[in-house]
Amino acid sequence: MFKQIAALTKLNLRSIPQRWGMSLATVFSVALVVLVLMAFLAMANGFKATLSGSGSTDVAVMLRKGAQAELNSGISLAQLRLIREAPGIARNADGNTIVSGELYVIVDGLKRTTLTDVNLPLRGVEPDALVLRQGLKIVEGHMFGSGSNELIVGQAILREFAGFDLGSEVRLGTATWKVVGVFSTGGTVFESEIWADAGSIQSLYQRGSGYQSVRAKLDGADGLKALQDWAENEPTLNLDIITEKEFFSGQASGITNIILYMGWPLAIVMAFGALAGAWNTMYASVEARTREIATLRAIGFAGFAAFVSTLVEALLLAFVGGLVGSVLAWLIFNGISASTLGGNFTQVVFAFEVTGEAVQSGIVMALIIGLLGGIIPSIRAARVPLLSVHGG
Amino acid sequence: MSKTEPLYVLRGLSKQYSRGKETIPIFDGLDMEIANGEFMAIMGPSGSGKTTLLNQLGGIDAPTTGEVIFDGRRIDNLGQGALAKWRSENVGFIFQFYNLMPTLTAAQNVELPLLLSPVKGAERKKRVATALDIVGIGDRAKHYPRQLSGGQQQRVAIARAIVADPKVLLCDEPTGDLDRTSADEVLEMLQLLNTKMGKTIIMVTHDPAAAKYAKTELFLDKGKFIKKGSKK
Amino acid sequence: MNDFTLVLKNLFRKKLRAILLLFSILSAFLIFGALGSFYKVFTAGVEVAAADRLITVNKINFTVSLPLAYVNRVRSIEGVRNASHASWFGGYYQDPRKQVQTFAIEADTYLAAYSELVMPDEQRKAFMETRDCLLTGIDLVDQYGWKLGDSVPINSNIWQKKDGSSVWEFTICAIFDGDKETVPANYLMFHYDYFNENLAFARDKAGWIILNSEDPAMNDDISKQIDTLFANSQAETKTSTESAFNKAFLQQMGNIGLILSSVIGAAFATILMIVGTTMVMAVSERTKEIAVMKTLGFRTGRIFRLVLSESLLLALLGGLIGLGIAWALVDLAIGPALSGFLPGMRLTADIALLAIVLMLALGLITGILPALKAMNVAIVDALGKN
Ligand SMILES: Nc1ncnc2c1ncn2[C@@H]1O[C@H](COP(=O)(O)OP(=O)(O)OP(=O)(O)O)[C@@H](O)[C@H]1O
Ligand SMILES: [Mg+2]
Prior knowledge:
The complex is a heterotrimer. Chain A is α+β, with helices and mostly antiparallel strands. Chain A is 49% helix and 20% strand. Chain A has 2 domains: 2-52 and 252-390, no CATH class; 66-237, no CATH class. Chain B is globular and about 50 Å long. By secondary structure, chain B is α/β, with parallel strands linked by helices. Chains A and C meet through helix 2, strand 2, strand 3, helix 8 and strand 12 of A and helix 2, helix 10 and helix 11 of C.
């Protein structure tokens, strides 16, 4: 039986060029469906990867209870002082806890592709911030001076937005600020930020001595628990404390879901359209080969072999379509930089990511189209009346 | 009639087609025997049921009632799979329009039925070559059907029909699409297969000249054999 | 029997094929209808923006507040008919992850600025007179099962009261709706005074200023005047029309328009290929018949029209069914489900019209080649070969 199937399949595939128009249409319609699906998946994956790659499990983020985002939060100097002495926080060589009180405000930037104003995050940080972001490197220029009106900007900011090039001056409020450095953090969300000295931001925004969030290096695996328990019992503290990883993955899910909730239904509706096309093509294939199939069966080939060979043709066309779609998606989308409004109400720059998993989804979808589009024509192939040998 | 066991025995064979409420009887209780080694030509007006009869003999259509016995075994009540196997072992078909696979070469077309047999490898190649030689187009083995004339295509079809060494060849107007010269060549070949290789051949034809090649000529009209002529 | 009978017979000579093609076409128009409606409502903020309405924000960014005193200074500028202000409250009800848009507003001027917000007169009066009144959008009333007179605690994830609590108590004493479906009614408003005097910190700030010009023609001029007025002060401003402001905000999300049109483009490319190749094949199957019609005396022009009508009919049939499904989906299912975020999502007449134009285009494009082919069938060739 296997021999029969192999022989008929070969026969079948060889006849594809006789129907190249419709076969090609099938391949490309499946390819387009896969392309659309992959575009959405690449977008969602890229966004998710940027955010979830950002958080570290040994850094705690502290916000005022219920604040949800750094932008909303507020933490007083007195509270920060208290936190500096808290248990569960790692200490540096000098014996001081590794803690950075930070401010998070929004400034306007100009998006290069659309030339429209966008929200960019301006973060005021303390020196320990550098230790708290692993892999942070100044790649050009130098660090801002303490208490100065100097800024350093993430690489993604330079790439996507105008107005923050190295050496340029930026007017915020009444003061003029200067961009003195560019930093990289290996593709994390911090690269979409602008940094300055916390003290300078406090005075710019008339925040007095207040902060918005506190980051601290945790002391081992039990550090978080120790810190949380301690904070619970401090009457003057009213904090949500979570790991940075958790903080960012929470932000990732909302937008990622929106992209996916949009992408999948669209791809599925398109898939139905392509399915109808595949079905049609396979019917044409069976029809064109009716006498051929009947002759083979008259010679003694089994109907089942005709069924399988037809189905294989459908699956193959769909598979090639899936492959073409995936390769196109990879060529077109992989790595392209985009930005959107993230959970913090500021732009998050991310790169589309065509992952292996997405390619797998695309191919599976293609094969399902092939299977559903091919099954009924294949049954028809198996049931070609033997009397069709006489032509007509 | 020969004294030995007949190859085919038809008993009370009836076939009717229904078109809506109407039923059209083609045969009504046909009895007939076909001897082993026979070369029979069936003639008759269009619509008389020649093709229908051939279909019953070849097991590609089943009678409404009655029995088709081949070599002592009933085939009219076999299932799809068993019938397919039976066909691959016992029958070679030759059609008016050749029915070759356009995407296969002559040799590959001839090889097709061997895929259903245990014949493998070198033996298979040899058989194909022999079959092509018998029909006299060994030199065209690598050609595709569209590169061959009608007569040549029909020879390939004959080679395909005999390659698995069936007992019987069923031919429906094998020369219907050919000019006189090609037709005569094909018919001579069939005659040769009958006399030298002992194949039983049942051939439907419109052409009285073609029928002359057969040992027996039968005339079918309205589902009945009305005249029978045997030369030998 | 007339030409239309011929067209129908030809189109449905292979029923399954016709149905599959219809299905294919349907899918593309379903996508078009749904995404078109989505885009329309997504950009509705730009469209419902009143022509005479301007927004003044802090030049650093619109999330940075302005001194409250600015409102009166804006009011005194010539050509400004009305000025009001609002502040972002960062509210949520019970679940901190589910934000409820909430604004602290200067009530009378704000409602004057947004005349499209409507409510019964006695409720408007109640709102004006009740300090802790929560003016509630009708969509939220439905969503949370609130009713007039309910006491509702709204948390702020930004603002704390003097007593350190971030729970603010309100009474629902008025419910507003938009005068059009596309006007959102999914947010809360309350008195700025109530907000300001209870604040623990950052008092006397206005989030942004809304103003109406006497004449939209003066918009540019007024914007310049305002921004010059506050130039070099500690809070510089940026003034733009409401529609420009909304548009810029939407663009922050990314190029949604490009994404949606690419998807629609891909869907149409798919059916163009499928329908196009099938129609070509369908006509070459009939070469002989067409030749016979020609021998009977059918003129080439008429044959051309017959074949073209076939694909036009196919495109229109499939397209209209797809549009119908899109309508049912958008107006009856997705629209109501999304009314919380995108109120008034509907398949509007202009989208339907555009869809019909696309159907005609699709029919013409997929039909022209087969029609030409049919027209050029040579009788001798067609009838000669077997
Ligand atoms: N599938 C079918 N359904 C209904 N009627 C059929 C069918 N096949 C054949 N017939 C009818 O059966 C009769 C015999 O047909 P058959 O094909 O056997 O004739 P034939 O003798 O081979 O004719 P020809 O010389 O034209 O090939 C004809 O009247 C034909 O119309
Ligand atoms: Mg016949």
